[in-house]
Amino acid sequence: MVTATFRFYEELNDFLARPLRRRAFSYVCAQGATAKHMIEVLGVPHTEVELILVNGESVGFNHPLTDGDRIAVYPKFEALDIQPLLRVRAHPLRVVRFIADAHLGGLAPLLRLAGFDTLYDNHYPDADIEALAAAQQRIVLTRDRELLKRRTITHGCYVRTLRPREQLREVFERLDLAGSAQPFRLCLMCNAPLRRIAKDEVGNRAPDGVLERHNQFVTCDVCRRVFWEGTHWQRMRALMDSVAGAPERPA
């Protein structure tokens, strides 16, 4: 029998049973159990973990636990505001791309608005999300902690808030996305790139009044929708500025 002492820090406590939160506690582990296995047995998805210390030394997820071990588990360093000494995450992502599960239908178009390639289909089964995330190196966004425990999902984010705009702010802050945002680059519906078109190419895809008031248009070649800088664009621009941080204007 292996008994180890665990201590989880910061927001990782949200995943634990209430009596185990914000304190060290002993837990009986299976013989040969790894750090990853026991962390997830206790309710914390491995994608939420940035650093594991066993007896004061940094280890990876596959580290086997032995009797008497003391395990400290830390979340993303952005939330802790400390300098990491060793990253235990494997396979760093070169491009930030997402796949959102059925619970996040309002968040997906907002991420596309910010310029982030985001797959979403409310009929995706968990197995498809796992496969697409692995094949296309996408970060899984979900409110289902069990989905993040799937073995091949290496990058994920458990979204805590409920309203889409609050979810957007949460993801921006947790993943430090402000510097990578490229607003108004993707179609909110299709996730396809937008391109500029001449006013005389718009035809009947925009109301006559819009053609009279505006000269610049973009379109999506998948759904053929046309977009212009109207009042809706202005509201979305204000949202992007508030989330990503608008550049300071000279005094």
From TrEMBL:
Transmembrane segments: none annotated. Residues 1-81 form the Ubiquitin Mut7-C domain. It comes from Paraburkholderia domus. Residues 97-239 form the Mut7-C RNAse domain. It holds the Pfam family Ub-Mut7C. This is Twitching motility protein PilT. PANTHER family: MUT7-C DOMAIN-CONTAINING PROTEIN, MUT7-C RNASE DOMAIN-CONTAINING PROTEIN.
